[in-house]
Amino acid sequence: MATCVVARKVQFCAAHRLHNPGKSDEWNRTTFGRCNNPNFHGHNYEVEITVEGEIDPETGYVVVADRLKRIADEHVVANLDHKNLNLDVPWFTNRLTSAEHLAVYCWDQLAGRIPTGRLTSIRVAENAVNSVEYRGA
Amino acid sequence: MATCVVARKVQFCAAHRLHNPGKSDEWNRTTFGRCNNPNFHGHNYEVEITVEGEIDPETGYVVVADRLKRIADEHVVANLDHKNLNLDVPWFTNRLTSAEHLAVYCWDQLAGRIPTGRLTSIRVAENAVNSVEYRGA
Amino acid sequence: MATCVVARKVQFCAAHRLHNPGKSDEWNRTTFGRCNNPNFHGHNYEVEITVEGEIDPETGYVVVADRLKRIADEHVVANLDHKNLNLDVPWFTNRLTSAEHLAVYCWDQLAGRIPTGRLTSIRVAENAVNSVEYRGA
Amino acid sequence: MATCVVARKVQFCAAHRLHNPGKSDEWNRTTFGRCNNPNFHGHNYEVEITVEGEIDPETGYVVVADRLKRIADEHVVANLDHKNLNLDVPWFTNRLTSAEHLAVYCWDQLAGRIPTGRLTSIRVAENAVNSVEYRGA
Amino acid sequence: MATCVVARKVQFCAAHRLHNPGKSDEWNRTTFGRCNNPNFHGHNYEVEITVEGEIDPETGYVVVADRLKRIADEHVVANLDHKNLNLDVPWFTNRLTSAEHLAVYCWDQLAGRIPTGRLTSIRVAENAVNSVEYRGA
Amino acid sequence: MATCVVARKVQFCAAHRLHNPGKSDEWNRTTFGRCNNPNFHGHNYEVEITVEGEIDPETGYVVVADRLKRIADEHVVANLDHKNLNLDVPWFTNRLTSAEHLAVYCWDQLAGRIPTGRLTSIRVAENAVNSVEYRGA
To answer: Is A54 a catalytic residue?
Structure first.
């Protein structure tokens, strides 16, 4: 049986602000720069979900492509798309809305729901130059 | 003298919300869908600035590349990058923050400041599939 | 009233073959090269639909973004996506399935259905290097 | 001696259909959705070939760039480009033409032919959002 | 007969330097900045060639795709790819190697050689943010 | 504590030539082909810097984004952008200016300067199809 890694990208756009309420305004401005703007800014985010597993000889797939997309749409995109990450997503109430934390969020939403194979990586890109990858705890 | 068209792209990321305060919440939700989210969402915007003019035989340029970039940075990017278009940019106080209006805004900021040649088009893309182009009144 | 041009991209993937049945096999092979392969080949196609019109001050839009997408999905993507252009799309029964003809097909499907503004261009790209644009008869 | 990983992308376009002849039409439609279209559909495929090895101090290369390209063109692109994967490529006679199997096919074609270094990964992308990676048995 | 516009991209990489020998070193540094580096710098250039004409009902093409590519390869890419524009291309002996002039060069090389239809535009991009377009004298 | 991988891309354009002075002209032409052009050629290079570390709960970052960018700009981009790699960068005096060696150069410049986390990979792309990755000695 051949093992293969499957990756699927989904996208969402959202507003957010990097701000640590336990720190001074000065610390926040110095640490986060323009990302600390009080009225938020936003991005077109791209999330790449990677699943590893054996190729099913009946389908040729590691995981049926449409099922993976439906799970990502339901448990990641529906919660984040056209939202304010700081105000509209309860998971971020006590967490900074960094790309690192977004990757952990996506992992938590998806790791237990992959129908065949197992989640091995979440990559989150905020733009064409910055991205993070989380591979689980 | 050869006439040539020069295009330069700049980028910014911003939060915004489409909402017409003179209309009902129902109308706004129906017309703008998820773009009406009360807490804003956001994009990585790309602006392409097009200038037409004669090639200067001393420089080979229609417009000195660095000067065009500096003007765009000062009069467009500095005002919009890491901002909330609805709350942080006075020009939008009484205007919807659609890509169409963003293109008109960029035109108004730049048309009188092009050092050589003349501004012929502003193209604003909100993402990889949606864009608008404004060519002046 | 400001006039603006709005562009939206949609995508589909399809099989096709370039073959003129009124010509010899030799002529077809010479003219179309590998695109004449009897068992078809295929592409991820991208269609950019451009609409020009006045910006509606109540919406900030030339055309409501979601309506344009829905029309394109219903009258272009649904007919072409995951299809064989030669065998599954009746419009091509007596026409070569070139990118040029695809652009004319999209125009014919969309020109009468744009709710506000008017269709001004259809651009069809077969890949990252080849595209055609049709602006109406 | 420094070890380095070299990656090269090649492209081809092809028609294909996902269909398991040992299963019912109903099963095939449910499992493969639109990818089961009887008359095929197609893609612009991208294959990224990764080779790991020591940098040769005489060339600065892990593997001479042109040789790697020529091997990929001869043993992958020539067999797949402008072809119908189901009908024109004997390797797929008894295999589903999924991206996973395409990656295994490319591996089998290339693993024994890398002149210096060793093949470590084949990544196949069907479009901008779906890809698979195979790293050998 | 339907009129259509066909565009094809070709690529080349080259070294160049912006320097006007009739001006002082100071003027050259101020005008061209880092592009004036005495030992040259370089780019991956992209040239998009646009041809307008009627669709030939026998081929479905405005211009046979392979012929256009062969002409571009022979008369543009072969002369510029892996070259130093200042030292290896005689046309630039007395001209600045700006993108504007490159577009004029490509036009001069191609305008008389388009087999069907007529050349309407040459777009030259030096990178992802800067491009110029020349539409003839 | 969650471990995460952060990647940032920077870009530069440069001229270079592949030539081993200890070998014959014939050997150089055969081995490097057009990359051996005596007057140099050039590229728009892209460098992706990957840092792995624990997410700092006070910032949500593995490494403060702006600090990483400033270090890359100061120790990589400033040395290579708009330069001739063979003539302007002393590190290459006795080394071939291959992408492999560029990756090692960037590693040497950055590995000791990452403020939090540790450098795990440098990926250098010369164009859209060729890239190399170096993960340290």
So the answer is: no
Given C2, C8, C65, which is nearest B134 (Cβ)?
A: C2
Contact B132, B120 (CB under 8 A): no
Partners of residue B24 on adjacent β-strands: none
Active-site residues of E: which are they?
A: 35, 82, 126
Pairing state between β C41-54 and B130-134: unpaired
The pLDDT value given to residue E1? 67
Cα–Cα distance between B132 and B105 in angstroms, integer? 13
pLDDT of residue B58: 96
Tell me the pLDDT of chain A averaged across its residues: 97
What does the pLDDT read at residue D62? 97
Residue E104's pLDDT is 98
Cβ within 8 Å of residue C24, ≥6 positions away: none
Q: Is the pLDDT of residue C1 over 90?
A: no
Q: What is the mean pLDDT of residues E13-30?
A: 98
Given the cut 0.90, state whether the ipTM is greater than it: yes
Core vs surface per residue F41-72: b (16+ CB within 10 A) or e: bbbbbbbbbbbbbebbeebbbbbbbeebbebb
F103 reaches A (C-beta below 8 A): no
Q: What do you get for the CA distance between the two ends of chain A, in Å?
A: 28
Residue of F nearest to E127 (CA): F44
Per the annotation, the verdict on A101 as an active-site residue is no
> If you search the block for the tokens 């720190």, which residue do you land on?
A23
Profile chain B (137 residues) by mean pLDDT over runs of 10 residues: 94 98 97 97 98 97 92 98 98 97 98 97 97 96
pLDDT tens for A28-41 read 999 999 999 999 99
* pLDDT, average across residues E65-84: 96
Closest Cα partner for F136 from F123, F115, F121? F121
Pairing between β-strand C3-16 and β-strand C83-84 as defined by DSSP bridges:
parallel
* CB-based contact, C30 to chain D, within 8 Å: no
Asked if the C-beta of B26 comes within 8 angstroms of chain E's C-beta atoms, the answer is no
Question: What does the DSSP assignment read for chain B?
Answer: --EEEEEEEEEEEEEE----TTS-HHHHHHHHGGGG-TT-EEEEEEEEEEEEEEPPTTTS-SS-HHHHHHHHIIIIIHHHTTEEHHHH-GGGTTS---HHHHHHHHHHHHGGG-SSSEEEEEEEESSSSEEEEE---
Place of tokens 């200042």: E86
* B11 inside 8 A of chain C by CB: no
| C-alpha distance from C136 to closest chain D C-alpha (Å) | 28
Q: Three-class SS of residue D129?
A: coil
Please give the C-alpha separations between residue E43 and each of A130, A135, F32, in angstroms, as whole numbers. Answer: 23, 36, 19
Q: What is the pLDDT of residues D79-109, one digit of tens each?
A: 999 999 999 999 999 999 999 999 999 999 9
